[in-house]
Design goal:
The protein has 284 residues and is an alpha/beta fold. It is 44% helix and 16% strand. The protein is built from 13 helices and ten strands. A ten-stranded mixed β-sheet has the order 1-10-9-8-7-6-5-2-3-4, with helices on both faces. Strand 8 (190-193) and strand 9 form a beta hairpin. Helix 2 (40-51) packs parallel to helix 13 (270-281), helix 4 packs parallel to helix 5 (107-119) and helix 11 crosses helix 12 (244-262). It starts with a strand and ends with a helix. The chain binds ligand NAX and adenosine-5'-diphosphate.
């Protein structure tokens, strides 16, 4: 059965915070960032994760990027992350339960960090450079994927990882839903294929569709960095314990609803900050 994503009572209940909860009840998300001058995308993701309700969010960047990121971040914590060996060491802290890799990461750092991150078997969002870095040799990525991963390609990134499915979809031989569903089964994880119609499929063949058309149109989401925010929303919800598939569905709804709440003129950094008013409006 194909689920049309709308706000449901189950989604609303899962977004609430319990009155006796503390920050570690809502998980700790780690967002990896790239080198100097490329930090914007990861900062957008980190802020979105915190606004989505993750208890703690840390941005992990190379030592050389610390000053730049420190100048922009306050509630989001910051740590130097030189290499994948150090990343593996961070998994000794079992409270660190969700990761986001890709936005602004850069291909060389993605090639090193993605296998290290997947080794930790935490809930993980892979977006942007974490997908395109494996374009020429996807084997190491596919071998390491597991069922707590959400891949969030736009159609260009989808083409890099699943060229046969993309070709069949573009030729009209396969629907977007079927292409996404087959990709999820092949990858063994959740796949979210972006666009004004977003399709989400899990390896267990759950399928959901969000149509940002008609009353739910959100054309101002077509702006640089809005996908980075979506990745952050999903990792924030997974830190809070939502399953990868549910986090992808709820994150997609929140992303479009926040864009509609803000309205024309929206740029990516407005999205996380539109969430508090949206949460009030939906009665959290
Ligand atoms: N504010 C920021 O710091 C931003 C940083 N970004 C980062 O910049 C890096 C590179 O991102 P780019 O945006 O240059 O690379 P993209 O991977 O988004 O675009 C590269 C190519 O992919 C294709 N493509 C993109 N969107 C498509 C779509 N919807 N359908 C079909 N084909 C599509 C196009 O041919 C495009 O030239 C990433 O690390 C990304 O996270 C971007 O997310 C934009 C905002
Ligand atoms: N016309 C549109 N209507 C609704 N949503 C859109 C539209 N165009 C893009 N989006 C959404 O905006 C986001 C863009 O992400 P992406 O292509 O990765 O951009 P970036 O890498 O710049 O962040 C996706 O979530 C996509 O579904």
């Amino acid at each position: 059965m194909i689920r049309q994503i709308t706000l449901t009572e189950t989604m609303r209940a899962a977004l609430r915070k319990g009155v006796e909860d503390h920050k570690f009840s809502h998980g700790h998300a780690l967002v990896l960032a790239g080198g100097p001058g490329r930090g914007g995308a990861a900062r957008l993701a980190a802020r979105a994760a915190l606004r989505a309700g993750a208890g703690l969010v840390t941005l992990a960047c190379p030592q050389v990027s610390l000053a730049e990121n420190a100048a922009h971040l306050t509630a989001v914590m910051l740590t130097a992350l030189p290499d994948a060996y150090t990343l593996r060491g961070m998994f000794a802290d079992t409270r660190l339960n969700a990761l986001c890799l890709g936005p602004g990461l850069g291909a060389p750092r993605a090639l090193e960090m993605v296998p290290g991150a997947l080794w930790g078997r935490r809930a993980t969002v892979l977006d942007a450079d974490a997908l395109t870095a494996f374009e020429h040799d996807p084997g190491p990525l596919f071998n390491a994927l597991h069922d707590k991963v959400v891949l969030t390609p736009h159609p260009g990134e989808f083409r890099h990882l699943f060229p046969d499915l993309a070709r069949a979809w573009e030729a009209g031989e396969m629907s977007k839903i079927e292409a996404t569903s087959r990709a999820a089964v092949r990858a063994g994880c959740t796949v979210l294929l972006k666009g004004h119609e977003t399709v989400i499929a899990s390896a267990a063949e759950e399928i959901a569709v969000h149509s940002a058309t008609g009353e739910m149109a959100a054309p101002w989401l077509a702006t640089a960095g809005s996908g980075d925010v979506l990745a952050g929303l999903i990792v924030g919800l997974m830190a809070r314990g939502h399953s990868p598939f549910e986090a992808a569905c709820s994150g997609t709804w929140l992303h479009a609803a926040a864009a509609r709440q803000f309205g024309p003129g929206l740029i990516a950094e407005d999205l996380p900050d539109a969430l508090p008013a949206l949460f009030r409006d939906i009665g959290l």
